[in-house]
Every structure is written in structure tokens, then in C-alpha cells.
């Protein structure tokens, strides 16, 4: 089972940016937590972060044919990017949408999610544990 974990813009600033919404864990802490969780379960994982929409599209396309599941937090591109939605639709890889904060209780502009149209599940407001829940969901439902 190979899972790709993708984080979009500003998620490299975890631990620094708005701790009230995103907590105190850094991006490095998050990667460590995911890698150790996956290694305990025998899951092959790769963590990728970019601030650039095209790089996120490239990464999703590169997963075609070699990845069993994607966990994605597109950050602000959640609310704007048809390109990322189309990339996920193109590769037909089961994809879970994760948000650290409870987006449904935030601003109106955060209520639109393009990626949700292609996601098999959405997890919001569980902090960084949401990524681990997404990994569990993919392994329970799409294990290879
Ligand atoms: C976020 C929520 C988005 O609205 C925001 O732009 C982010 C992070 C979250 O994880 O809660 O960058 O995706």
C-alpha cells in the first residue's frame, strides 16, 4: 500500500502560522508523525508540500499508476483550484481531503471546496490527527 500525503500553500508554516487555528506542531513534526505511523503499519508513504499550484498538479499526475491513495490538504487552493480537482479526477486514485481547522465554522470563502467533488472522504477540525484518520480510512477501504 503506497500513500502520498500532499500539503498545499502555507502548510510549511505550521507551528508559526495562526496557532489558534492550526496548533503548535511544525510541518517537520507532522511529517515525522505521519512517517512513524505509516512505518508501524507497514505502509509506504511519501510526504510532499508545495506553495505552487502547478507543482501540486504535477505531483498528483506523477502518482498515476504507482500510488494506492492520496491524502491532500490543498490549503487555500481548496477554495479556488479547479486545476487540482481535475488532476485528482484524472488519476482516479482514492483521495481523502483533510483540513486541520474546522473550516465549516470559519469564513464564507472557506465554505467552497473544489477538491471535495473528487474526494472519497473529508476530515476537518481534528488537527494533525486528521491525516492519520485519512490514512486509516484509505488502508481500511482500499488496501492492496
Ligand atoms: C486549511 C484551511 C484552509 O482554509 C486554509 O487556507 C489553509 C489550511 C486547514 O488545514 O484547515 O491553508 O486547509
Which descriptors would you attach to this protein?
single chain; 144 residues; alpha/beta; Rossmann fold; five-stranded parallel β-sheet; 5 helices; 5 strands; 18% strand; binds 1,3,4-trihydroxy-5-OXO-cyclohexanecarboxylic acid
Describe the protein:
The protein is of the alpha/beta class and about 140 residues long. The chain has a single domain (about 1-140), classed as 3-Layer(aba) Sandwich (Rossmann fold), CATH 3.40.50.9100. Helices cover about 35% and strands about 20% of the residues. The chain has helices spanning about 20, 25-40, 55-60, 80-90, 130-140, and strands at about 1-5, 45-50, 70-75, 95-100, 120-125. A five-stranded parallel beta sheet has the order 2-1-3-4-5, sandwiched between helices. Bound molecules: 1,3,4-trihydroxy-5-OXO-cyclohexanecarboxylic acid. 1,3,4-trihydroxy-5-OXO-cyclohexanecarboxylic acid binds near residues 73, 99 and 103.
Q: What is the CATH topology?
A: Rossmann fold
Q: Provide the β-strand percentage band.
A: 15-25%
Radius of gyration: 14 Å
CATH architecture: 3-Layer(aba) Sandwich
Number of helices: 5
SSE string: EHHEHEHEEH
- Give a count of the beta strands, DSSP E runs of length 2 or more: 5
- What's the domain count? 1
